[in-house]
Amino acid sequence: MRLPVSLWLPLALGVAAVAAVAAVAAVAAGQSPLQRRVVRDVLEYFHGRSNVHFLFKEREVDGVIEREDPSGTFVQLRLGLAQTACRKRAPQRHCRVLESRRRPTCLACYKFDTSDVPKVLDKYHNCGPSHHLAAKEIRQRDEAECRAVEEAGKGGDTLYLPGMFAFSRGLPA
Length: 173
Description:
By secondary structure, the chain is of the alpha+beta class. Helices cover 33% and strands 28% of the residues. It contains 3 helices and 4 strands; from the N terminus they run ααββββα. The protein has helices at 5-29, 33-47, 135-151, and strands at residues 54-69, 72-87, 105-112, 120-128.
């Protein structure tokens, strides 16, 4: 018995869509709240660039480093993106990923403070093509920038600026 394409195609696409959603959910389930925040911030940064005209979706998250010290939490990750068929000016709910299009990779380094609602002390992100001719120089610069981000908020580099502290003398009793 042969089934018409109109009957089996939606079922096949539904299975693929469910598998894609499950894969993204599995990636998101293994991430800490700070890592999810970094991914969200990097996507906002990437879509805010003037040379990006299409929406990009998270493809993979690699090389996650999350370290805590007395000055805060340092998060470093590489985010693989995939171009979709949707324009960024007119986003839609369901945008399919274009397999043969751009797949940039973003390196993100963030330093958060230790408060209940963590504030960003310092950050660095670099998004570029996954294949680049000057990869060694870019990697060295990225490592230096991430080290500087990781050192943010530590006691040794605190500057005391005018008006940072106020002192008042009490009235005599």
